[in-house]
Structure formats: structure tokens, C-alpha cells
Amino acid sequence: MKSRLNAILDALLPLLATIAALLVGAIMLIILDVNPIVAYSALLNGAFGSSNALAETLVKATPLLLVGLGICIAYRGNVINIGGEGQMIVGAIVATWFGLRYTNMPGWLMITLAMLLGALAGAVWGGIPGVLKAYFNVNEILSTVMMNAIAVQLLNFVLTGPMIDPIQSEKASQIPQTARLEEAYRLPRLVPTRLHLGALIAVGLAILVYFLLWRTTLGYRIRSVGQNKFASRYAGIKVERYVIIALMLSGALAGLAGVTQVYGVNFRMITDGSTSGFTGRAGYNGIVAALFGSLHPILTIPASILFGALLVGANTMQRVTQVPSALITALNGLVVVFVVSSEIWRKKRQQKRLTVAIEDQVFDEFSNEIPGHSVEEAS
Amino acid sequence: MISDLFSLTVLLGIISSGIRLATPYLFASIGEAFSQRSGVLNLGVEGQMILGAFTAFYVVMNTENLLLGVLAAMGVGALMGLAMGFVSITLQAQQGISGIGFYLFGLGMSNLLFQLLVGTVETVSGFPKVPLPILSDIPVIGKLFFDHNILVYLAFLLVPIASFVLNKTNLGLKIRSVGENPEAADSLGVSVSKVRYFTTIFGGAMSGLSGASLSIALLNVFQLGMTAGQGFIAVALVYFGAWRPWGVLAGALLFSLVNGLQLWIQVLGINIPSEFAVMMPYILTIFVLTLSRSKYGAPSALTKPFEREG
């Protein structure tokens, strides 16, 4: 009974952290002389107020979920993948190139191939930091950030040069975008809104990732390496290999997120030249969503919807109250800070439970080995 | 023409811009080196930098007082450092991820405040060049090294000072011991958390100063997202420099010289797409991180929260 209460409390921590962040936001709004109730209800209305609003929320949630699933895998393997932005970009570039290059294919075939290619490109972009970490001890946080910067430049290059829309290249404006994909290649819409099949695919993949992590040997090994790489090596697991695989899977999912943005939303690649011009910072916000979902693939689904809602609602809030939507970026940051900070209470309660249960040395050694890894298995 | 790159004027131009461009990296990386040496990985440098850049810009725009701008930026950075310290030292949160939170927070806040308080692109009159007497008259070298704004000198002066403090003073010893073996330091009566709070607050202040050096000394404007990843590179330079101020200097110079080269390649219109030129420093960083397997490892307690036994 008591452990169930604890489990509920643990699951509520991210929610409490979000409420805390929203309260800070409310104080900021009051300082700006804006009624927080008006602002937040505009936000809510913009995110869920109509079927179109709801569809937009889900469209925005889709890349967050895909990136977030990758974060779940990487984090379980004790690698932190900050490279979602770059992985999305290269995935989208490769898939877009393929779709523009090969015309007159059946739609389902092209979409499947484009997704596979995009995922592959993302996996390569994530795999490079993986190899560097596994064999050269290069901190993956830094290398993935660098890979993001490189991908952004690559994006700016292809969209102003080799892949620019032929119509744009003749115009003076030269908007950095590719040509449109042909109609047959677009991801089918689910209802008469912008909601596309990619959302369903993402949910399906969430279930798949759950099975991968907790029902397969591969998943077991990734988690085992993440929890204690010395014990894993002792048990005969090739630690390096699973570090690389974790980052590659993470990159593949982010690459897929990039593909869905092209094949499901814009039907072309387009950027405004800024670092987040194509991704809309989904590579970072996906981390936020995954954290919020306690790094569990299934819980990341509602978490992504929540953050998709915040992003969509922020625009409505800006229209109604004139408060720039950047406020939501700042609050997202606070959510991350609060969620990771609230871990200490979970850890403390867990420690209490465990010390009561097993008063032996094994736990001491174990908990020393995995600082900050209090996220319990779901099964 | 490629051969144009090797003319004396261009070489001097590259070195001169390299020295100027190293300034923000030096401030931020040395601050970060201090917090990492004490065991705290602050990944929020980028957020502290951009908020510092905005603060300095806004204060100078309104008061035209450069010193006040610098101090305000350092104050804002220090406050964010304090918050980072509270989260990672007292609450023992995972540092890699909380840093991303502070990054998003700083980015969003600077964006929000800029749109609310400034709105349009405006320039300020930032730190002027201060040619050092006599030294700047030395032919060639004088112009290169002794004809910069005061923050450039300060950044380079910081390197020997930081090295001295870390290696030769009692404070430095405490910082290093807390980062290498917090249990031993604790048993000798050193307050682990006090030392770590000090370094994260100092690191935050330096990141704020770094941002100020962009907005009121190098560029004299504020643009949304103007730090463009430089804070993350500053963190990478700490690894590159093997956690030592002189190593950080070498890294910052190498990185900013390549950056200067990249600018000149574009100026001279050499036939490389500018995007590839901009990519170079990042590729170089990855490359160097891969090769630099220095004999000094990371501080043993880096990213590990400290908790007394029992």
C-alpha cells in the first residue's frame, strides 16, 4: 500500500515541477502587468480550444515524442544526447533529397524508404559521437552540440545551394527552401486537419521502444551498461558497442522526427537561417518532454502532448496578451531545472525504502556507482 | 585566391581578429574551468552568457555607463550561477541536464526581455580601443597585441591570475581537493559545498562578463540568440585545455584563430561556401577533443554530488 503511494508521488513529481514553473511564469506575468489567468487561459484555448487547435498541438507533439523516445533510450544507456537538432536536420536532408530525386514511385513505398533513410542518416549523425565516446572518451554532450552546429551549416548550405527550390533560385528573394514533394509522397492526413500519420507512427514507436528496453536482450544490455558499466563488462557485455547502439537508436528516432516534419507538415525543407530555423528547437524540447515523462517511453507520450500544447498555446497567448512566446521557452527551461531538482525527494524516499529492505553492502556499492540514476524501472 | 591568405596583411588581420574573438571564450572557459575543477559541470554557460549579454547591452543603452553594464552582467551571471549551485550542490540534481534547463531559461528570458524592453536592433557605443602607450608603437606587434579594448586585455590577464590562484594559493588547493577527493577534503575540514558554491557563482559571473564582452565590446549590439553556441564551445574548451587556464588559453586561441581565418576566407571571397568555413571551428573542436588524450584526466569528482556518509 505504502509503495503504491510512493509510486504515485513519484509520478506526480514532474507535474508538481511544471506547476511550480507555471507559478514562476504567473509572477513574471504579474510583473509585466498581465493577468496570468487571462494569459494561461488563452494558452489553454490556443492548444485545446478547437479541433484545429488540438490537431496543431498533436502535430507539434510528434517530433517532440520521437526525439524524446531517443532520449529515453540514450539516457537508459547513461549517455546524454543533446544532438537531436542535428540528427533531425540530417535525417530530413537525406529524406528530402531522396523524395525529390526519385519521382513517380508509389507513395507508400517512397514514404517508407524516406523514413528508413532519414532514420539511417540520424543514426549515423548520432553514431559519430557514439564512436567518439566509446573509443576516444570524448564527452558526448560536447560532441553532440558540435554536431548540431555542423548540421545547421550543412542545412544552410544545401538550402541555399544544391537543393534550393529552382523557382527560388531564379528569384531575387532566394528563400532557403527546397521544391515541394509531389502530392503522392505526403503522409496521409488522419482527420481534416493538419494532423498526419506521423503522429500515429510516433505513438506506435513509443510502444516499440518500451518493448525494446524491457523485453529484449538488446534493451536489457543497454540498460545494464547504463546502470553499471563495470559490472556489465564483467558480465561479458561489450560496453562500447552498446554505448554506440544507444546513441545510434537515439539519432535514428530524431532523424525520423526530421522526416515527419518534411513529409507530414511542410512537404519541403525550409529554414529561416537561424540555428532552430528548421527544427523549431524540437531537438531540445524533446529532451524536456522525455524528462517530464520520467524517461519512460509511454509516459513521454502525454508529456510530449503537454509541451506541444505549450508551444502552440504560446502563440495564442502572444496574440491575446502581447507577451512574447519566448516566455514559454524560459518556462520550459525552468521545468527541466525543477524536474531534475525534484529527483532528490524521489531518491531520498527510495533510499529509505531500500535501507529498510536490504541492510547490506551491495546497495552501498550499487548506489555509489550510479549517481543521479534513481529512475526506477517500470516493470 | 588561396595565395592571398598568406600575404602579411591578411595573416596579421587573422591574428588580430583571432585575439579579439578569443575574449568571450576566455572569460567563460576560465570561469567554467574553476567550477569543473571543484567538481561541478555547468552546462548552462550559454544561458548565462546570453542573459549577461542582454543585461550589459540594456544597462549601457540606458545609462551609457560601461562599467555599470559589465557589473550588471556579472551580477546576473552570478545569480544564475547561484541557482545552478543550489540545484546541483544542495539538491544534487543531474548537472548535464539541469544545465540544458538553464540554457533554455537564459535563452527564453533574454529573448522575452529584448522583445519587451528594446524591440528593435539598436547599437550602443561600447568599449573603445585603448592603445597601450609605448607598447602599441612597436611595429607590427604593437597593432596586433596592444591595440584592443580593455576587456581583451583583461581576458588575457585573467589566464596567469587564474593559473596562479588554482595552483599556488590556499583557495586553489581547496578547489582542486574538493574536485578530486571531496571525502578527504571534507575530513580535513574543508566545506565542500561552500567551495563549490563559490566556484559556480564565480563561473556564472565570468559567463555574464563573457556575454557583456560580446554585446558591449566586440559587436555593440544585442541580437536574439547572439551567443550562437559559444557558451557550449567554452565548455568544450575546458576539456580541450585539460582543466588548466593555460590549456584553455591555447584552445581559445586555436579556436578563434580558425574563426578569424574563416572570416578572412569569406572577406577574400575564396571559393569555399561560407557555410563550410563556419563549420571549420566545430569540426576542429571535435577533432581535437578526439586527439587530446592528455595525461591529466578530468577531476575525479566531476558531476558527482557530494553527500556525507551516514
Structure description:
The complex is a heterodimer of chains A (about 375) and B (about 300). Chain A is mainly alpha-helical. Chain A has one domain: ABC transporter involved in vitamin B12 uptake, BtuC (Orthogonal Bundle), CATH 1.10.3470. Chain A contains 15 helices and no strands. In chain A, helix 1 packs antiparallel against helix 14 (about 325-355) and helix 3 (about 50-75) packs antiparallel against helix 11. Chain B has about 300 residues and is mostly helical. Chain B has a domain at about 25-230. Chain B is about 70% helix and about 0% strand. Chain B has helices at about 10-35, 45-65, 65-90, 95-120, 140-145, 150-170, 170-180, 180-185, 190-220, 230-240, 245-265, 275-290; strands spanning about 130, 145-150. Chain B has a two-stranded antiparallel ribbon with strand order 1-2. In chain B, helix 6 runs antiparallel to helix 11 (about 245-265). The longest helix of chain B has 30 residues, at about 10-35. At the A-B interface, helix 6, helix 12 and helix 14 of A face helix 4, helix 10 and helix 12 of B.
